[in-house]
Design goal:
5 strands, 4 helices
């Protein structure tokens, strides 16, 4: 499946939403931001921030991480992610694609540890790194698919 670039990747969480963006050629994923959800700063503000990024980076596709592990806790979060994606797609008028991100948080923690970062103090960064990792994985797999078909 060919997606248009640049792509905004979103690692959806109940407290933090990690963002990453691809370049216009779809080669490199770059960490972008972490949007925090609090009582004072609800989901509506997050949607506003994402809309701003979609406009600023001229985003053509939104990639949302969704765990593929089928356990009850993941089913609940998958429903929240689906609801979030549906609203985001209608607000931005941008196609939404899902990417398996089952192990991206663990991979992000490992990357931070390998860089000598403390996981607790880097907690906010994990979601952003996670989004960057599954976006890069998506870009790499798309590139391989294109090479097979050319």
């Amino acid at each position: 499946m060919q997606t248009e670039k640049p792509i905004l990747a979103i690692d959806y969480g109940e407290k933090n939403i990690g963002l990453a963006v691809s370049d216009s050629k779809g080669i490199i994923a770059t960490p972008l931001d972490v949007l925090k959800i609090t009582k004072k700063r609800g989901l509506e503000r997050v949607y506003e921030d994402i809309l701003m990024f979609v406009e600023e980076y001229r985003i053509k596709t939104i990639l949302i991480g969704k765990p593929q592990i089928f356990q009850e806790t993941y089913t609940k979060s998958a429903k929240k992610i689906d609801s979030f994606a549906k609203k985001l797609s209608s607000l931005t008028n941008t196609p939404v694609v899902f990417q398996d991100e089952s192990y991206s948080t663990i991979q992000a923690q490992n990357v931070l540890l390998s860089l000598g970062q403390n996981i607790r103090s880097s907690k906010g960064k994990i979601d952003m790194i996670s989004a960057t990792m599954f976006l890069q994985e998506f870009l790499n797999s798309e590139k391989k698919d294109n090479e097979k078909h050319s």
